[in-house]
Design brief:
alpha/beta, TIM Barrel, eight-stranded parallel barrel
Length: about 290
């Protein structure tokens, strides 16, 4: 891996063959050194985090520490999605509201890009800031979909993978994200670890940290590599920092006292980031730093 260090330090993308080498490398220490070098080349010591209030139905009664309100689930129609958005925006105030999946909205539009743009305009008028995610493994023409949604006035900042158990599949999707960013230039973060883990072929921690490292080393044109704090837990999220991740998403906004009365989610996330020898920085849904 030593021969790849100059490319990592210079923020030069690995080739397909070089990325395969990293994915197959049994020396995780060397992989971590390479990926951390790339992370620091992009962001120095800073690791950002976002406190998200996830809403799956109805309207929240309190925002707590939320810097983003995220609507999750597939609505029955654009009109239903807009009505839900308006109700939540009325409560959220200055906190940005994001929601839904590009793939689900495309289904609502019957696969028609013009109808998708029109639906995006309806959601924009209702107060939505951005579509919450673009699952790169579920769409065939991501750049055209991003353009359609942007034509409707919304943003698509976050790219995710829903399912990808095999490392080769993950690499192909990582390379698709790089190609997408080359076309649109508006992606702000990429979460390379699958949201859904296959029951019959679950991923391992070794696979996951290599995936994060390769995402950082290949997607040099994407500002941030992200790990879902709520989905993957604090231990893997903390380790991920040493393998190239620079953003921790979906940190709870509501203190459930699970951590005890002396430690809030914000205190815990900042403690975890600091323990990984990085500097924590809070950000909002727009990926702008906040106090």
């Amino acid at each position: 891996m030593n021969d790849l260090e100059p490319k990592a330090a210079a923020r030069e993308a690995l080739t397909h063959a070089e990325a395969q080498r990293v994915l197959g490398c049994p020396d995780l220490v060397s992989v971590g050194v390479l990926a951390e070098m790339a992370r620091k080349a992009h962001h120095g010591e800073r690791v950002t985090y976002g406190q998200v209030l996830t809403v799956t139905e109805g309207v929240p009664t309190a925002l707590e520490a939320a810097r983003e309100v995220r609507l999750e689930g597939r609505p029955a129609s654009f009109e239903a999605a807009a009505a839900w958005t308006r109700a939540v925006v009325a409560v959220a105030g200055d906190v940005p509201v994001t929601g839904f999946s590009v793939a689900d909205l495309l289904d609502l539009a019957g696969g028609d890009h013009l109808a998708l743009a029109e639906g995006a305009a309806v959601l924009k008028a209702a107060g939505l800031t951005a579509v919450a995610s673009l699952p790169i493994d579920r769409v065939d023409d991501p750049a055209e979909l991003v353009r359609a949604i942007e034509h409707g006035g919304l943003h698509v900042w976050r790219v995710v993978i829903e399912q990808a158990p095999a490392l080769e599949t993950r690499l192909a999707l990582i390379e698709r994200v790089t190609a997408l960013q080359q076309e649109v230039g508006t992606v702000k973060t990429f979460a390379p670890l699958p949201i859904i883990d296959q029951v019959d072929t679950p991923s391992t921690g070794y696979d996951d940290v290599r995936t994060i490292a390769v995402a950082r080393l290949v997607c040099v044109n994407v500002p941030s590599i992200q790990v879902d704090w709520a989905l993957y837990g604090p231990k893997l999220a903390q380790v991920a920092i040493a393998y190239g991740a620079d953003d921790l998403d979906n940190v709870p906004a509501v203190d459930t006292l699970v951590l005890g009365t002396r430690r809030s989610p914000r205190q815990d996330i900042e403690r975890q980031i600091t323990a990984a020898f990085a500097t924590p920085a809070a950000r909002d849904a727009r990926f702008e730093l906040v106090r």
